[in-house]
Amino acid sequence: MLKKIIKSIVKFGLVVLNRVSCKTYKRLYPKYLRWIGVGIEDNYQQGGFDPWISPSAYFDPGYPGLISVGSGTTISFDACFLAHDYSVDKELYAQYKEHGLLLGKINIGKNCFIGARAMILLGTTLGDGCIVGANAVVKGHFPAGSIIAGNPGRVIGNAETLLSKHKEKGDISYWRGDNYDTFEMVLPPDPEPKR
Question: Fewer Cβ within 10 Å of end Cβ, the chain: N or C?
């Protein structure tokens, strides 16, 4: 009970810190996740450009040791990682008078991007450089560089093609400066009016 209270206080402090000093938050939050049992690589920050884990991301509190996140991975707000599933419990009890659940590891590769409110389910492995779209429900094994979207999540493309497409369109905004505190905003041109 005391450990839960301490975890809650530390988490609250980190959420407040994110609003005061995002840079410090990004350095400390992976250490907090490691402390509660999530497998975060020691060199998490060095793995890619400016990785960030939202304080609202949900890591299965019952089984955090089944979740691992590679260095450089960014996790957007309200993303959910569930390493357990109780769906079999009711039928198991009805037939055998026993309770049970399904457990499975979640392995996220290096330099991945997990979109807002994505749900990553037990038994999922994402290769390095995968992109998971917002609200996707993902379960299974996905090769490096996959773009995964939908419910159920499926591969809809690859990261290299996506980058090439946006480079060609010229609609990428680039970060500039030593502290990455400013960026050069590029907005796509207004569409031609219809006649």
Answer: C
Count of beta carbons in the 10 Å neighbourhood of residue 154: 14
pTM: 0.85
| Local confidence band at 54 (pLDDT 50, 70, 90 cut-offs) | very high
Q: Residue 112 corresponds to which amino acid?
A: C
Over the chain, what HEC string results?
CHHHHHHHHHHHHHHHHHHHCHHHHHHHHHHHHHHHCCEECCCHHHHCCCCCECCCCEECCCCHHHEEECCCCEECCCCEEECEECCCHHHHHHHHCCCCCEECCEEECCCCEECCCCEEECCEEECCCCEECCCCEECCEECCCEEEECCCCEEEEEHHHHHHHHHHHCCCCEEECCCCCEEECCCCCCCCCCC
Of the listed ranges 41-50, 67-76, 82-91, 181-190, the least confidently predicted one is: 181-190
- What CA–CA distance (Å, rounded) separates 122 from 25? 28
Distance CA 89, CA 128 (A): 34
Query: What gap in Å lies between CA 128 and CA 69, rounded to an integer?
Result: 10
**Most distant pair of Cα atoms in the chain: their distance:** 70
- Does residue 45 contact residue 26 with C-beta atoms inside 8 Å? yes
At 68-111, the pLDDT tens digits run 999 999 999 999 999 999 999 999 999 999 999 999 999 999 99
